[in-house]
Amino acid sequence: MNIFFPRSLKLAYRKEPISSFILILGAVDAVIGGVGGRWSLLSVGLIIAVIGILVRWQQLQKSQAVAVKNNTKYALPPSSSNSPLPLLTHNKQRKG
User: Fold this and answer.
1) Is the pLDDT confidence value at 6 over 70?
2) How many CB atoms lie within 10 A of CB 64?
3) Fewest beta carbons within 10 Å, which of 2, 17, 31, 43?
4) Residue whose C-alpha is closest to residue 16's, from 47, 62, 48
């Protein structure tokens, strides 16, 4: 088994836990149904896995739309037309 596969699987599961759970649940049902010869469980598992893929695709589309929509707005202009403020000095005058 490739060493990058478990890392990528763990990264994907941490990034989108709900859709990953749905996808894994459907895949396990499909494998159990396919090995056991239960075609109804296989078909339900495949449907659930497709739903998990669709949920993940929808979440990716939503996050890309938010990233495009979120433009940076600056409160100040990039360069000020006014001259900079003078430095303040502290002159102590002693009364004696």
Assistant:
1) yes
2) 10
3) 2
4) 62
